[in-house]
Amino acid sequence: MKIAFIGLGNMGGGMAANLVKAGHAVNAFDLSGDALARAAEHGCAVFETVPDAVAGVDAVVTMLPNGQIVRSVYTQEVFGNTPEGALLLDCSTIDLATAREVVELARGEGYEMADAPVSGGIAAANGGTLTFMVGGSDAVFERARTVLEPMAKAVIHAGDTGAGQVAKMCNNMLLAIHMIGTCEALALAEKAGLDPQTFYEISSKATGYCWSLNDYTPMPGVGASSPADNGYEGGFASALMLKDLRLAMAGAETSGATVPMGEHATRIYEAFVEAGNGGKDFGAIFTTL
Ligand code: NAD
Known about the structure:
Structural class: alpha/beta
InterPro entries: 3-OH-isobutyrate_DH-rel_CS, 6-PGluconate_DH-like_C_sf, 6PGD_dom2, 6PGDH_NADP-bd, HIBADH, HIBADH-like_NADP-bd, HIBADH-related, NAD(P)-bd_dom_sf
Helix content: 40-55%
Radius of gyration: 20 Å
Mean pLDDT: 97
CATH class of the largest domain: Alpha Beta
Domain 3-hydroxyisobutyrate dehydrogenase-like NAD-binding: 162-286
Number of strands: 9
CATH superfamily of the largest domain: NAD(P)-binding Rossmann-like Domain
Number of domains: 2
Family: Belongs to the HIBADH-related family.
Bound molecules: nicotinamide-adenine-dinucleotide
Low-confidence stretches: none
Catalytic activity: 3-hydroxy-2-methylpropanoate + NAD(+) = 2-methyl-3-oxopropanoate + NADH + H(+)
Strand content: 5-15%
CATH topology of the largest domain: Rossmann fold
GO molecular function: 3-hydroxyisobutyrate dehydrogenase activity
């Protein structure tokens, strides 16, 4: 297939490279010259405008920072310049309301489109092991799967339009909550006189079992290895967790859901990021306790 890839940053760069490896012809566009230079090294054809990049393609994939940019790229540059019948896939993590609106606008322009956000960080993007959560009809999902598989460990049909973004925001809100809870439990265990490693051995096999404790233990030298063992460098930045929590709070407002723990987690990450810790792994909340 011929695929236009727009937004070749930390995530999109590796994703586009995996499409090239799978034998697709990939047309790349990004506002950053550095990102385009890296895309060229990975075998993408690089273009200076979106209309040039999308001309003659079978599919467009976007991996952009936020909903406002996604809306403007699609409405001002992709629609009308992309051939009729091409599939549009937005893999960015954006707010639910914008995701649904852009798909609706795409339909009005005669395109099939799906929201397809990902779980997995830069290593998974480079390694082709992302999990995609796809929102769209059965027919759109089947088309999307073919495009997404070379970049994926799993491609999951979440439901209709917007369901991919719903899955992503619920997953990451839950992740923030159990990460904070895990940090609190480890700190409490230690302060109350229980060896944290012994607490890990017990709770990771008891009902405290969760990914943050079992697989990404946020206390240095305890449990599973994680960015905690490396000064909280690398991993999943607290600023990105805060972005996802804010999207979840917006989604809760849009859908009328009550999320007191999600709100609390958002406040905790807000304070942590405002204190200058946005670049630290999200498990570094442990250091505040
Ligand atoms: P990034 O900032 O590294 O990349 C975004 C790219 O988009 C940049 O290269 C930027 O130049 C480009 N861009 C911005 N505006 C543009 C425009 N108008 N036209 C063309 N290109 C434009 O961000 P990232 O970490 O790659 O994240 C991308 C998306 O993936 C975000 O929605 C993020 O929430 C999501 N995500 C990130 C991670 C992660 O671990 N980094 C994990 C899962 C999902």
